[in-house]
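lol so apparently i was supposed to do this last week
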Amino acid sequence: MAQNMIIRAPLKRYEKKLKRFSRALNRKVHKSKNWFKQKDRVARLHYRIACLRNDAHHKATTDIVNRASAIGTETLKVTNMLKNKKLAKALSDSALGGFLEKLKAKAEARGIPITEADVFFASSKTCSSCGHKKKDLTLSERTYHCSQCDISIDRDVNAAINLRNVVVGQTETQNACGVQIRPNTVQERARETEAGKVVWKQLKLFPI
Ligand SMILES: [Zn+2]
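anyway here it is w/ zinc ion bound
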C-alpha cells in the first residue's frame, strides 16, 4: 500500500526574511561596521536554512526507509526545468541531490532496493487508475482529471502511484514512445551524472 508523503522544502518560510536581509545589506555602505553586521545576519540565516533542510532530509529519508520495502525514484531533466524561473527556485530549494544521497545511503545500509524509472517515463501524464495518457498536461494543473475514467487525484500522488506500479509490478515497462523503461541502480545513474549528463531525480518518493 502506498502512503503518500509530499516533502516540503524549507526555504519558503524564510524567503521573505532573506530578501529583507539582503536588501538591507545592499543599502549599507560597503565594508562599513553596519555592513559587516548585516552580512553576518544574512550568513546566519543562510546557515539556518541549510540546517533546516538537512534536518528535514534526515527525518524524511529515515521515515521512508523505516516504512519501505522498495523505493522508486524518477529522473528529471533539470536543464529544461531551470528555464522556468519558479521551478528553478523550487528545485534548488529542495536540494534533491543531497536528499537522494541520504536516501540512497540509508536504503543501502538496510538492503532496500532502489529502482529508478527512465527519464522518459510519463508519470505525471498517465492516469494511475486506467492508464490513459493525457497529452496536454500543464504545470499549473495541480489536480489530475482523467477524461476516460473521470477520477480526480492530486498530480503528485498520481505520479507517485504510477511510479510505484513500475517498481512493484513492473507492469508498465514501456512508455508512450515505446521506449523500454530501464530500472537501474542509483550507482549507475550517479556515474552517468558524473559523465556530464544533467539528470536529477524526482521529488516523488514513496514508501510501499
Ligand atoms: Zn483514468
